[in-house]
Design brief:
With 352 residues, the chain is of the alpha/beta class. Helix content is 47%, strand content 15%. It has 14 helices and nine strands. Helix 8 packs parallel to helix 13. The structure holds 5-phosphoarabinonic acid.
Length: 352
């Protein structure tokens, strides 16, 4: 069954959990999340902090990727994203640990948080509740609460921008209000352009979802914000679209993946290059050369480019475009974008 993406009623019917609405709400989440982070109470003293570790899994780790990629070139201390139950060995009393779990019940994040407390790290918690909220309250750890009843991946604005605001309020990041304002404006415009009532001919997200057809997307982005956006497109294709997808960073992929693009394998794939206007000149040269290699192997190729100014707006603009495409991919195939039963089954089995 293929749902007609020119029929807004059919789109609504195929999206009972309203994931399209959640994706379109990203701008408001970023604005409100930033305000709540900046206004957070009792943040730890970070004057002598030598590193930041964001602990989280899946949708709750992406906020850490946003911080890491946007601030790598602007922050005197490293930001690391820890997607495991183990804290890196270097984390100690001079480390700020930001524990991020939307549900507050993710075993890896809870274990890393407990370890951070044992080691005397400075800690901040971002969650909608669960055991993490209870433990933060029990240990007097500052907690930034985000609204519940969303899928974690649909709460990216809350999870990333509360952290952003809190790190600014703590004194680690420069004032970000102007970049946040640009991001909100860009995201609002993008949601309007990709809305359900905009016909396929004028709607870039619907068009790309149709062009993908039954091929597997491979997303490329420049190391840094481009690669973080590419990884998010991949996981959104998986969780919203219910299809396999892969991603790679440029120029790493030019040192291995390009060799694998050979006939007849390319025909099963669409390579989507995520581009922005501040790429390193050599990287900008590599994209068309590398896309040509994939095309020679039979792959279709697409380019998605942002003209946003700040790194934060560039990244969120690329992210929201993939979020919209992934939802239309699901709807077109008659798959419900919202539930992720497989993840819930795995968690239940492990809690067993
Ligand atoms: O998208 C999802 O549902 C997952 O990737 C979750 O984010 C992941 O399992 C971690 O759960 P939580 O975000 O509640 O910590």
């Amino acid at each position: 069954m293929t749902v007609d993406l020119d029929d807004p009623g059919a789109i609504r019917g195929a999206d009972p959990g309203e994931m399209l609405g959640a994706v379109a709400a990203l701008a408001g989440q970023c604005r409100d999340g930033y305000a709540s982070g900046v206004g957070a109470d009792g943040l730890p003293d970070v004057a002598d902090v030598r590193g930041v570790v964001v602990c989280g899994m899946g949708g709750s780790a992406v906020g850490g990727d946003v911080l890491r990629s946007v601030f790598r070139d602007r922050l005197g201390v490293p930001i690391e994203v820890n997607r495991s139950a183990q804290l890196p060995e270097h984390a100690g009393t001079h480390t700020l640990v930001l524990a991020s779990s939307y549900s507050g019940n993710t075993s890896e994040t809870l274990a890393a948080f407990e370890e951070a407390l044992r080691r005397g790290c400075r800690t901040i918690v971002v969650t909608s509740g669960g055991a993490l909220a209870d433990r933060a309250a029990g240990h007097g750890v500052p907690l930034i609460a985000v609204p519940g009843d969303l899928q974690p991946r649909a709460a990216l604005g809350w999870l990333a921008f509360t952290g952003l605001g809190a790190l600014e309020a703590a004194g680690l990041l420069p004032p970000m209000a102007a970049d946040v304002a640009e991001t909100v404006e860009v995201l609002d415009a993008r949601a309007a352009a990709c809305a359900a009532d905009i016909p396929v001919a004028e709607n870039p997200a619907k068009r790309l979802a149709i062009d993908l057809d039954d091929r597997v997307p491979v997303i490329w982005g420049e190391e840094g914000i481009g690669a973080v956006a590419a990884a998010r497109w991949k996981t959104q294709f998986n969780e919203n679209g219910k299809i396999p997808a892969w991603w790679s960073s440029m120029s790493e992929l030019d040192h291995n993946e390009v060799v694998g693009w050979s006939e007849p394998y390319g025909r099963s794939y669409v390579v989507i290059a995520l581009r922005h206007d501040a790429e390193d000149p050599e990287i900008a040269e590599r994209f068309p050369l590398s896309l040509a290699i994939a095309a020679e192997a039979g792959a279709s190729t697409e380019e998605v480019r942002t003209h946003a100014r700040s790194p934060l707006a560039k990244l969120l603009d690329l992210i929201t475009r993939g979020d919209h495409v992934s939802v239309y991919v699901a709807i077109r195939r008659g798959a419900d974008p919202t539930p992720v039963d497989v993840i819930q089954r795995l968690k239940a089995a492990l809690a067993g």
